[in-house]
Design a protein that fits this description.
heterodimer; A: 301 residues; B: 221 residues; Rossmann fold; 3-stranded antiparallel sheet; 30% helix
């Protein structure tokens, strides 16, 4: 399977580490498995970030990458790619998270007006999204960079997945998931309106600010690992809602799982469909996600 | 215990909305707040429920924690059904699941929405929506329910039924303060009327005395 053709027996022996240092083993353990795990975790981060935006803002069109949160990290990573900033791998990871966090908090400030409507939020988010991506693209085109690197960043790619990236993602995802599960009960009243939520004893502004911070961290980590992958955060909560139901706990767990599955399978499609050439994983998610967003917009009341 | 408002003053953007206003809202009664647009009806509810905090004056005897406020036209969550919304009213209350379920069924029954309990909120009529919000408010089990124009989109038959329901609810020990633009209905069904004009009170008292009052609408000022 895959561009670096391995037979079933090579794959198996590679997996079982029967032949130390063989090509099979190297491909499986340093390329394939990290890539699979990273795409699963990045998808989990996006699914979780998506459901956090949607629950905390009551907008069912919320998506961390369409709304520019991922664009924050993309700007930073563009600067890294273009050679404007030079730091170590952990610094890159931290920088990506911090810059996404910054955008998510700016977005939170922008939508903190009294009459927050799903449509207003979507328009605001898409404007912020367009802005961040164009800034990122300008920076990256300023440096002398290979087009594939640029595409990997703005359209998503897991080709450079490593065990190190996997570890950073794992910690981020587990920590954010645990925190979300602890506060997930607060999303019950948040489903109604800010006023009613307040009357049930949950401060909607604080809950939203906190959720958006988590969105920033999760999205930054996913962009660090796989670039901008649109629509996973948007569709995962919807699919989860259909399968598991409306309770916040089910949505949080379900959406993370579905994000993971969707991203893993999109990446495998992107890798194998036109092998040996790969196309960006973000294209695969967009082909499914964009029509679904149109459908949701049509149903919006 | 009555809900007492004393010397309430409220200014928004240098416009005086409420002018040294004092009133008593008797407990376990239905009180209707009437008055023309811009007279300050909704502002009173928002001040009492602490939605607005920039006022001067006192609200005494009942703490705002013992009240629940239903704003005009609460946003309709797109995917929740009637019983799920009602159920949200129990949020934060320390009651076990079976008891909660039993209470939920009783509330749906009281509010006459048992038969539509599984219908999505966005697909039911305006009258049914208001009954759902009322059931939601009752699930919170607060002493006072504040409602802002719940009947603006409900037809006359639905309005009568709704007022009947409100009367039943005051009989089980709740105090209701409701803003309405429909004076006829208010006079017919409410125990008490507060008529507001330009941020001051034109009439305050039992609804049966409203019509005999010299200037209940405050037109002579």
């Amino acid at each position: 399977m895959g561009p670096g053709n391995l037979s079933t027996s090579e794959l198996l022996s590679g997996l079982l580490r029967s032949e130390e240092g063989s090509i099979g083993q190297t491909i499986v353990w340093t390329i394939r498995i990290p890539r699979i795990l990273v795409s699963i975790l990045a998808g989990g981060c996006l699914g979780l970030a998506g459901v956090l935006i949607q629950l905390s803002t009551r907008s069912n069109l919320g998506d961390p990458n369409l709304f520019g949160v991922g664009g924050g990290a993309a700007i930073f990573l563009s600067a890294i790619t273009a050679g404007i900033i030079t730091i170590g791998p952990f610094g890159v990871f931290l920088g990506a998270i911090t810059s996404s966090l910054l955008v998510s908090l700016i977005l939170f400030k922008l939508i903190s007006s009294k009459d927050l409507s799903p449509i207003k939020l979507a328009i605001m988010g898409i404007a912020v999204g367009a802005l961040t991506v164009s800034i990122g693209t300008s920076i990256v085109s300023h440096g002398r960079v290979f087009p594939t690197q640029v595409i990997g960043l703005v359209a998503g790619s897991f080709t450079s997945s490593t065990w190190e990236i996997f570890r950073y993602l794992l910690i981020t995802f587990i920590a954010c998931l645990a925190i979300t599960l602890v506060i997930s009960k607060k999303f019950f009243p948040m489903m109604l309106s800010d006023t009613l939520s307040r009357s049930l004893g949950v401060d909607p502004i604080k809950t939203r600010a906190f959720s958006m911070s988590l969105v920033g961290i999760l999205t930054g980590a996913s962009v660090y690992a796989g670039g901008l992958i649109g629509f996973v955060g948007l569709i995962s909560p919807h699919i989860s809602r259909k399968i598991l139901g409306n309770s916040p706990l089910q949505l949080v767990v379900g959406s993370s799982l579905i994000g993971a599955i969707a991203t893993l399978s999109s990446d495998q499609i992107a890798r194998l469909l036109f092998a040996p050439t790969e196309f960006p994983v973000g294209m695969a998610t967009t082909i499914v996600g964009a029509p679904l967003m149109m459908y949701l917009a049509l149903k919006l009341k | 215990m009555n809900l007492s408002i004393k010397n309430l003053n409220l200014k928004i953007d240098s416009v005086q909305i409420l002018k040294n206003l004092s009133a008593d809202i008797p407990s376990e009664k239905l009180t209707c707040l009437i008055g023309p647009n811009g007279s300050g009806k909704s502002s009173i509810l928002r001040v009492i429920s602490k939605e607005i905090s920039t006022f001067s004056g006192n609200i005494t005897e009942i703490d705002w924690k013992d009240m629940t406020y239903l704003p005009q036209d609460p946003i309709s969550p797109p995917f929740l059904n009637v019983s799920e919304i009602t159920n949200l009213g129990f949020y934060g209350r320390n009651i076990n699941k079976p008891e909660r379920h039993e209470k939920l069924l009783r509330l749906l029954d009281t509010c006459g929405i048992s038969s539509i309990s599984n219908q999505p909120f966005i697909e039911i009529s305006s009258g049914e929506r208001q009954r759902t919000w009322l059931a939601f408010a009752l699930a919170q089990d607060k002493k006072v329910i504040l409602m802002d124009e719940p009947l603006s989109a409900v037809d006359i038959y639905g309005q009568k039924d709704f007022f009947q329901l409100l009367k039943e609810i005051t009989n089980i020990g709740k105090t209701i303060l409701m803003v309405t633009h429909d004076v006829t209905m208010a006079v017919e069904y409410a125990d008490n009327i507060i008529s507001l004009v330009d941020g001051t009170i034109a009439y305050e008292g039992p609804s049966k005395d409203f019509k005999n009052s010299s200037d209940p609408y405050g037109l002579q000022n």
